[in-house]
Structures are given as C-alpha cells and as structure tokens.
Amino acid sequence: MSLYVEGLTSRAPNSGMAEFQEVMRKELEASMHTELEKLLGTAKGAEAELARKNFEGFKKIFHRFLQAKGPSVDWPKIHRPPEDSIQPYEKIKARGLPDSVATSLNKLVVIKLNGGLGTSMGCKGPKSLISVRNENTFLDLTVQQIEHLNKTFNVEVPLVLMNSFNTDEDTKKILQKYAHHRVKIHTFNQSRYPRINKESLLPVAKDMGLSGENAEAWYPPGHGDIYASFYNSGLLDQLIAEGKEYMFVSNIDNLGATVDLHILHHLMSQPEGKRCEFVMEVTDKTRADVKGGTLIEYDGKLRLLEIAQVPKAHVDEFKSVTKFKIFNTNNLWISLPAIKRLQEKNSMDMEIIVNPKTLDGGLNIIQLETAVGAAIKSFDNALGINVPRSRFLPVKTTSDLLLVMSNLYTLDAGSLTMSKKREFPTTPHVKLGSSFTKVHDFLMRFESIPDMLELDHLTVSGDVTFGKQVSLKGTVIIIANHGDRIDIPAGAMLENKIVSGNLRILDH
Question: Is residue 257 within 8 Å of residue 131, measured between CB atoms?
Fold first, then answer.
C-alpha cells in the first residue's frame, strides 16, 4: 500500500481498519479520476483520443498500486529455477541450423526500445543518435545489422522502434536517411503517464502540454508498457497479418543484442502445442551485475525478480553471485499471437515498480512503471537461455563507450565482435572520473582511443588527457589531484602503472 494511505490508516481506530483503508483507497481513486478528466478537458482531437487510451492504462496501474500490501514477493517461496528451465546456449547452438533459415527469419520482427534520452552522457535528444563507433550511431548500427540479414538471406525482417514522447519527433526526422536501405522501419509510441505528487497522490500536471511548468509533469512508464502500446497502435495486428510470429526485443544501447539464428531456430522448431512463447536471455553474473534482475521459480512458474522487489533484509542475499548466478540481459524473444491473446484477456501480469524522483523545483514525485521481462510468468512454456557475455554489451556511460570505440572490438555489418587478438574473454574494467561523464568532454580528452588489447583495469580521475597512439596494459591508474593536470604523451606505453600528481606536455 502507498505510504500516503498507510499514513492515514495509522491514525484510524483498530476496529474497522480494513474498512477504513478501503474507503481511503476509493476516495483517492475517485480524486485521481476527477483530475484525469480535468486534464483530458485541455486536450483536443486526436491528442484527446490518445490521452484517453493512455489514461485507461494509467488507471489500471494506479488501482493496483493502491491495492498493494507490502513486498510483492514472499521470500520463503523463492526457489532456484529447475535445471531444464534455463538452457545453456551451447546446447541450443549444437543442434545446428536447417538448410534454410529464411522461413524462420520471415516470421521475425526486431523491436528496439528507443524511449531513452542521452542525458546521463551529457547529450540532448534520443540516446540512439549518439555516435558510438566510426561516426555510426546506435540506430545506424541496428539498421546495418538488419539490412545485412535481409540481403544475406533474401528476407524481409522489419525493424520496429518503440519511441517515447521524448524521442519520437527527433527519431522520425532521422529515419528519412534510411529510405533507400533494405529495411522496413515502423515506429509506435510508449504511453504518456502523469507523474504523481508523493504527498497528495494526484497528478502534478496542470494541462496536457509538455512545456513550461508541465515540462516535468509526464513520463514514459517503463518498457513493460510495450505490450499495451504495441497492441493499441494497431501495429501488432498488422504484423501478425503479414505472417510474423515472434519479436526479438532489446535495448537499443545494447550493442551485443543482435539476431541469433540458433535461438530463432530453437523457437521455430518446437512442436505446435508446446511452442515456447517467451525466451529471456540471461548471462552469468559478475561483481558488476549484482543489481541485475534474476530468474527464479515462484508458485511453479518462471519469474523475474528485480532488486526493487526484494525485502531489505534479503538484499545482500539477492546480490550474492553464488545463490543468484545469472541476470536478465533484457534480450527477449516473445510470441506475437501470445501478446495479442494476453492483451485481449487483460491477463498480462507485471509487478509495479515505484520509482521515486525529485523534480528540479524540489517536489517529490513517484512514477509507476513496469519492466518488459516481468511478464514472463504470463506466457506459456517460458524459457531462459544462458547466453555468452558477448550478447550483453550495453553502453550506459562513457566508460562503456571507451570500450566499444577501442581496438577490443571489430565492426562488421553493424555488429561488434571481440577482437581475436584479445587473449581474455572478458572486457577490461574501466572507470572514468567525472571529467569524462559528458560525451563532448570525453572526446576532447582523447586525441585517439588508446590500444587496450592487453588492458585489465583502468581508473582515470581528474583533469587527464591522452595523446595519440597511447597503449595501456595490465592495471593502469591515473589520478590528477585537484588543481593538477596530467597529459599522457603521444606514443606512451603504460603497463601496470600508477600515475599521479602533475604531468604537463608543453608546446615549444
């Protein structure tokens, strides 16, 4: 139950507590509905129709939020998944591929989650438009990958982008440049939900506008919204009518999330009555992944357990690499007819994530969100596949960007592959300080990206710049103290070195 309702009910008499709580819930729900109708009154035409659809979804999630009583999981009921419910990728790959994979590919749709902005990396506009390799953006690489598939196998795999109201306009402008590529591109929009004042539990928006005092009043409600918004857009029905059966969905900033023919063949080769409707790609946890969601068995079904759902007393246990050995990559393969069935029966079940935030003016708000992988328990014959780490290559920070721009990877037809010259299967651990957070600053600090083939660990802090053709090996730590500056000279080779203090290369 919400803190607000709990605060009110704590002052209620013990007798009739349940009745009092129910009255408070109904009052809050009625107030919310009234406020939403007022907001709808400020919308016109098509905007009003779309807003009403969005608000229907919001009312459902708000109702469930008010009904919630404590943590969404009962810890003693959590079990490790049965052996056969998470298959090793090697086993699936060993089955080989049929003579023609074209039939399977023609039943596939690739969906990229494209609702995020590049603000965490100091960029304006959609994150997918940030250059990540040889001037190619995330979106360029995605289009290249799918075009390569379509040309190689003479198939028509479409690309679908789930945009948000934050990214839709800029993304659509850029799509014109792919008009002559062999990829059919569709878009649809995530819902737009009102942010809720944490104290009053009412919307902070004054009208349906997105500017001025309303600039921070709205949010896209997490990627779990894909099912409803895909269905509501009409695109789901259109693709099913075209003979499409499965979607491969992933975050657009995960450069490892390419179409895998072995997983696709595994899905398509199941007997008709035992078709796997949902595959979640998982991979082995490292110390860097302790917060990632994991697969568990709960009430006899596979279920995604996120850290936000874990009772405080069990958080350390959840982070354990020994008990929960895998985490969700958010690369998912899902049956399109199954999504349609679950949407029409209104039986898609996802836990609510309550995301508290503070707006620029200091107002505390909450966002009610869902995660796409949380729906796994609603689908029949769901399966986890333990894939190689190479299929999880997210670029969330400039530290990640440094890795994918370096000679650790080769680029071929939009896909990044670990260089054969790298002797270790894992990537180096890179930690860049706050001077490198923004992409613009990051690029200014490297005359060229260092050779990192033999690097294990890099930490850089403070005002540091790198000249051309620098080579980093083993463990390298470079720390410029406050007021100092370190210029790593062109051609320098640093192996197992700690550099600190002040090092300036002066022009003369």
Answer: no
Q: Identify whether the C-beta of residue 371 lies closer than 8 Å to the C-beta of residue 328.
A: no
Annotated catalytic residues are: 396
| End-to-end CA gap in the chain | 68
- Would you tell me how many other CB atoms lie within 10 Å of the CB of residue 175? 15
Contacts of 78 (CB under 8 A, 6+ apart): 296, 297, 298, 305
Q: Which of 271, 349, 265 is nearest to 60 (CA)?
A: 349
Tens-digit pLDDT string for the chain (508 aa): 444 455 444 444 455 677 878 888 899 999 999 999 999 998 888 888 889 999 999 999 999 999 877 666 888 888 888 888 999 999 999 999 998 899 999 999 999 999 999 988 988 899 999 999 989 999 999 999 999 999 999 999 999 999 999 999 999 999 999 999 999 999 999 999 999 999 999 999 998 988 877 889 999 999 999 999 999 999 999 999 999 999 999 999 999 999 999 999 999 998 877 889 999 999 998 877 878 889 998 988 899 988 888 888 888 888 887 778 899 999 999 999 999 999 999 999 898 989 999 998 889 999 999 999 999 999 999 999 999 999 999 999 999 999 999 999 999 999 999 999 998 888 899 999 999 999 999 999 999 999 999 999 999 999 999 999 999 999 999 999 888 999 999 999 999 999 987 766 544 3
Contact assessment for residue 405 and residue 302, using Cβ atoms and an 8 Å cutoff: no
State whether residue 274 is helix, strand or coil: helix
Amino acid at 223: H
Please state whether the predicted TM-score (pTM) of the whole model is above 0.70.
yes
CB-side neighbour CA atoms (13 Å) of 220:
23
